[in-house]
Amino acid sequence: MKRKLTRIIGIVLILTMLASCSSVGIGGKQISVGGKNFTEQYLLSEMTAFLLKEEGFNVKQMNNLGSTVVRKALENSQVDMMWEYTGTALITYMGEEPIADPVEAFEKVKKLDAKNNDIHWMNMSNVNNTYALAMREEQANELGIESISDLAAYVNENPGELTMASDAEFANRPDGLPGVEETYGFEFDSSQIKLMDLGLTQRSLDNEQVDVSVAFETDATIVEYDLVTLKDDKTFFPPYRAAVSINEDVYEKYPEVEEITARLGEKLNSDIMRELNYKVDIEGNSVSVVAHDWLVENGLLEE
Questions:
Q1: At the top level of CATH, which class does the domain 29-128+239-297 belong to?
Q2: What is the DSSP string of 217-264?
Q3: Is 131-229 in the same CATH topology as 29-128+239-297?
Q4: pLDDT digits (tens, 9 = 90+) for 191-206
């Protein structure tokens, strides 16, 4: 009887220990971070996860998702937070007209998402993943072209000389090339526009097959090919600033997330993001290593 009682007590102690270990494993501050399916988003998600873990959060990353998929997941509370772009939210998700001023665009998105979707926006960064027009740095300097206004003046004075690489979407959408031409008062003849996949446009520029290319501000190929993006001096392209969007209930539960992610939002900009993308896409480094090293180098994470 004594042996049986001892065995029962032993089993109870083991189960108690397992339950205790289990509660440690699943307890504490839990949060999930979503991300889209391209390098910049992987990096933003990874850096955010590192910082949250440093502050005691158990972090679940949900990356490699399409834009509308991760957005729906955020709306349905399947994802707690993510870095999203103001222009994507305003134009694509909310169906609103583009707003040129980045702060105004952010405030509009913040107001609409709080009202309609219980999503809180915070910590807008200077990472602006918007459209841009790019040229080879050497040629741009030679022709004295620094801005889209300079490009417009050159095209008007030298019709038929320059050619441009574009994908079909940018070449035809109102907030793409047609809108740029109308705003800046110039026009490429149809024979001057070379249509191709978006991934080939900068390569064709580097190979001197064209003189101008559509690009995104944070493209790694801008660094790889020594390109320059022309200043959008009439602010035609709407801002696509990266900012944190978080489920309102999660934000209320963990308000400290705002201060934690502010460390990223305050330091990141398009130039830094472009360099980080370059380290992954061109140099072949892992997202985790690039994210960790940058955080350490900038004093945001202990080595």
A1: alpha beta
A2: TT-HHHHHTTEEEPB-TT--SPP-BEEEEEEHHHHHH-THHHHHHHHH
A3: yes
A4: 999 999 988 999 999 9
